[in-house]
Amino acid sequence: MAQSLELLLIQFLMPDNDARRQAEDQIKRLAKDPQVVPALVQHLRTAKTPNVRQLAAVLLRKRITGHWAKLSPQMKQEVKQSLIESITVENSPPVRRASANVVSVVAKYAVPAGEWPDLLTFLFQCSQSAQEDHREVALILFSSLTETIGNTFRPYFADLQALLLKCMQDESSSRVRIAALKAVGSFLEFTSDGDDVVKFRDFIPSILNVARKCIASGEEDVAILAFEIFDELIESPAPLLGDSVKSIVQFSLEVSCNQTLENSTRHQAIQIVSWLAKYKYTSLKKHKLVIPILQVMCPLLAESSDQEDDDDDLATDRAAAEVIDTLAMNLPKHVFPTVFEFSSMYSQSTDLKFREASVTALGVISEGCYDLIKEKLDIILNIVLGALRDPERMVRGAASFALGQFAEYLQPEILSHYQSFLPCVLNAIEDTSEEVKEKSYYALAAFCENMGEEIVAYLDPLMGKLMAALQNSPRNLQETCMSAIGSVAAAAEQAFNPYAGRVLESMKFFMVLTNDEDLRARARSTELVGIVAMSVGRKGMEAILPPFIDAAISGFGLEYSELREYTHGFFSNVAEILDDTFAQYLPRVMPLVFASCNLDDGSAVNIDESDDESVNDFGGVSSDDEAHDEPRIRNISVRTGVLDEKAAATQALGLFALHTKSSFAPYLEESLKIMDKHSGYFHEDSETDLGVRDNAAGATARMIVVHPQLVPLNQVLPVLLKGLPLKEDQEESMAVYSCIYSLVLASNPQIVSHVPDLVKIFGQVVESPVEKAEVKAIVGRTFSHLISVYGDQLHPLISGLPPSQANALAAFASTG
């Protein structure tokens, strides 16, 4: 076999595609025989050209897994000896590395079985060799073996750490330093023991030193590896950074603002600062690093692209904005003065990029620094509205973005500025730039959504411009335009009636679109009809509803989750205006709602079955035993669109029950099963899941209120209480606590066993900064009634609360 295999290896490397394919087929056939192992080992050691020796190593790595158990002890020893010789004697670095990869695979099986007891001894000796090549390949092997036999290293961990630290400080060889850095990354990823992880703190100065030298020599990919190690250190709960945080930030900022480097390198550096802002912000505050970070990040906002449709995930300005946003959320008092100074200084700059950055920065910090911005709102709004009139499109786009952020996060104070805000935004929606238009629609929608009767004076110019835009804009702008019209309708209520007919007539066109690229617009139009229906009311809508109902139901056949989500919202609104007469639609609508509630929303996992670069170079040569290689999980994505759909469908069930009353009874049992399932949603870090859980609690509460005799309270109450206090939806909070109040007021016996839980929940609610006053008021009334019924029995429960919560509850009790 050896002779024929050598010819095939040579043929495989020929440029002729036909010859290559023929060789590949023959190699696949021969590779099924265990004797291919000694043949490949022979060529690894004796082939005249490095390319053939490397190919032999790559194929050996692919085949050794399936054949190792079939080899005799003598053959196994010969394979191990040949691999060691290849690592130590081979002159070609690619062949040496390929042989090291084979060692890593063999060790996975041989070391745990006790078949290679001297491997670690050899590696330690090799790593201290006078020859640079030996030290490098030993470190490469330490790195790769961590993935396969990491547990074997545990007794030697202290020695390994000392070795790696020494090699990272090897001034005679950059290759050794880099290989040591990679090994540190592998060991850090493998290590979970807190005491072992803490020891990596001593590596930080050396990691920084290696990274600086790599940046200077143009080896940016290695510097990125250093940033990945810092990422691991930052996310670790162990106290790893200490005073080194100053050096890490300094180096990261140097790289961040170095425009000669690749975007990916700079992005990685900025990302490290972002992680520090997220996970170690108290350390940034302690070491007075917030202002130095902002002094670099704010100017980086000026590195924006000139292209309207630029969507570069590595864009420096976007990464810098993320850092500023994260800092503002966690350290608002330390962020606002510097950003305000930057924006004030550059709002009149002759450089359009810095004028753009000055207003972008204000928009970015508006959520985190909302209280501080409100104190200077007149000045800040003047800066942004001035930028909205800037001759440069990019500056106007940044201003419209900032106004959208203000409209969302500076409520209700921003509403008092409607006389200056609305006219400027009305002009902006007629801008020549689609970007400015789209962001202005968003700002208008967010602003108008919270307006009251003040909007009436602006209805004519608002609706005139919005309807004109709806007729003459591309699809993406029509979508945002519909969102703005919906906000206007919701704010204007009955005053919107004169405009409703024209809007509804326009929506008939959008609600029957079926092309994939039009389905988002169809979803928005369905949502808008529901909002307009709420403004017009039952009297104006009932007679004209059937075609809209038919169009909405037909949309479920288009397999577009967002359309189904918005359609559930549409039906919820229709149920609210029709009340009990919505029962006529239940037979058609309920199967659709149940289907959405029961959708599979599991994580989507992509498996990357590719191997290292060497294998990919010869990727066509595989084997029947490739399944023995363990695939790598490349990424996991959560299907948030389905979760949004579930949240909307869950809320719809509660509203259908509330409004159709006894007509809902046939669907109650199935609905309660769904609520039980949804009350304990599993993706804890997903805000969408909070929507599912909150809506399940609200829907359960509505079902209890409407059907107290049909609902098994002993089963349903634990479901209702499981997710309290709610995290997201104030409307659902009100439904839940109103239900609990009615149960307590009626002295329902099922509530008694849950009183301790209620006291804990009420303590959190009355202290919460996000719960609205009306929610706290009904909780207070409920607690007062509990006091009147149970009296002194509650005192031990109250005393077990944090003092601030206990005092707040006591205040409610005293006011009755």
From TrEMBL:
Keyword field: Cytoplasm, Nucleus, Protein transport, Repeat, Transport
A GO MF label: small GTPase binding
Location relative to the cell: Cytoplasm; Nucleus
Pfam families found in the cross-reference section: IBN_N, TOR1L1_N, TPR_IPO5
Record-level GO cellular component terms: cytoplasm
Domain Importin N-terminal residues, every copy: 23-89
SMART domains on file: IBN_N
Chief location bin: cytoplasm
HEAT repeats: 380-418, 421-459
Keyword NADP part of the UniProt annotation: no
Record protein name field: Importin N-terminal domain-containing protein
Origin species: Brassica campestris (Field mustard)
